């Protein structure tokens, strides 16, 4: 039987492309979503991938959710921490709620989910964790102190957990996409988006599958010597 992969935010956008690609590669996949049942059910009908609803910002919900996935499919071998939100506003107008919700959903979720799967991985001496960061965590972005802090935090979290886990056959890596054509980008002001695309050397937005392809590679046995790394997929927008 194939390994078990769990993708948070796996019912829409980049996460849906990741879940789909992992399924096509032979993994037994489940996808977590928060509240958009219409999108989640459509995704399930189209792909047959089981969907689970919980809030990744909630520690107990993650522990309980992982226990259910374990009952349904077995222990999680591959965890993709992809769920994320934006609440863009300049710092001098940002509310504590806008700060806290982005930090909790985009960063604390990585702790919650990893904490819930790591002991199973350590016991079985195998694991693949892929955390989805962002180009805006690598370089900062106007109006995104909350998001940039969370996404930069993911990079430090990834490296520290990679060190702790390397001796146990567990790799921990980050993928930092640039601007990818999903609903998250679809809600941006069209004029702003046009100006951003004009600054992307390859001259277009990325496709969700171009991120999914990297995750598929990192999930595989051939990527066992890669850990603590950040893979950028940003059309040349930021070269670190
Ligand atoms: P979308 O907004 O298209 O999809 C977000 C997904 O995350 C949905 O499935 C959503 O569930 C889920 N989700 C959100 N909050 C929670 C929560 N609290 N608990 C559980 N699930 C949750 O996002 P994208 O596909 O665009 O982005 C995916 C990831 O990639 C994010 O981390 C984002 O920050 C990152 N990224 C995106 C870029 C882009 O240009 N699109 C660029 C760089 C990074 P539901 O459908 O129920 O709302």
Structural description of this entry:
The chain is an alpha/beta fold. Helices cover 49% and strands 15% of the residues. The protein is built from nine helices and seven strands, in the order βαβαβαβαβααβαααβ. It has helices at 13-24, 37-47, 59-73, 96-124, 135-139, 145-165, 183-186, 190-198, 208-219; strands at 4-8, 28-33, 51-53, 78-81, 127-132, 170-177, 230-233. Strand 2 (28-33), helix 2 (37-47) and strand 3 (51-53) form a beta-alpha-beta unit. The protein binds NADPH dihydro-nicotinamide-adenine-dinucleotide phosphate. The site of NADPH dihydro-nicotinamide-adenine-dinucleotide phosphate (NDP) has 30 residues, from helix 1, strand 2 and helix 7.
* Tally of strands: 7
Helix content bin: 40-55%
What would CATH call the class?
Alpha Beta
Shape: globular
Spans with pLDDT under 50 lasting ≥5 residues?
none
Strand residue percentage: 15-25%
Give me the secondary-structure topology.
Elements: E1 4-8, H1 13-24, E2 28-33, H2 37-47, E3 51-53, H3 59-73, E4 78-81, H4 96-124, E5 127-132, H5 135-139, H6 145-165, E6 170-177, H7 183-186, H8 190-198, H9 208-219, E7 230-233
Parallel strand pairs: 1-2, 1-4, 2-3, 4-5, 5-6, 6-7
The structure holds NADPH dihydro-nicotinamide-adenine-dinucleotide phosphate.
């Amino acid at each position: 039987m194939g390994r078990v992969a769990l993708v948070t935010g796996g019912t829409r956008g980049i996460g849906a492309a990741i879940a789909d690609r992992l399924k096509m590669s032979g993994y037994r996949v489940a996808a977590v979503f928060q509240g958009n049942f219409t999108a989640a059910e459509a995704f399930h009908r189209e792909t047959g991938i089981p969907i689970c609803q919980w809030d990744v910002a909630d520690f107990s919900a993650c522990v309980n959710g992982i226990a259910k996935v374990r009952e349904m499919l077995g222990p999680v071998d591959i965890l993709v921490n992809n769920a994320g939100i934006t609440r863009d506003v300049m710092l001098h107008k940002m509310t504590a709620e806008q700060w806290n919700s982005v930090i909790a959903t985009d960063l604390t979720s990585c702790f919650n989910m990893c904490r819930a799967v790591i002991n199973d991985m350590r016991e079985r001496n195998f694991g693949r964790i892929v955390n989805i960061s962002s180009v805006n965590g690598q370089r900062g972005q106007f109006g995104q102190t909350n998001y940039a802090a969370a996404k930069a935090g993911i990079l430090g979290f990834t490296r520290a957990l990679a060190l702790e886990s390397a001796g146990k056959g567990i790799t921990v890596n980050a993928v930092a996409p640039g601007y990818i054509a999903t609903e998250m980008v679809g809600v941006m002001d069209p004029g702003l988006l046009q100006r951003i695309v004009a600054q992307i050397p390859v001259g277009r937005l990325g496709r969700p599958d171009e991120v999914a392809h990297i995750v598929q590679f990192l999930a595989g046995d051939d990527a066992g010597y890669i850990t603590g790394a950040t893979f950028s997929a940003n059309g040349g927008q930021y070269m670190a």
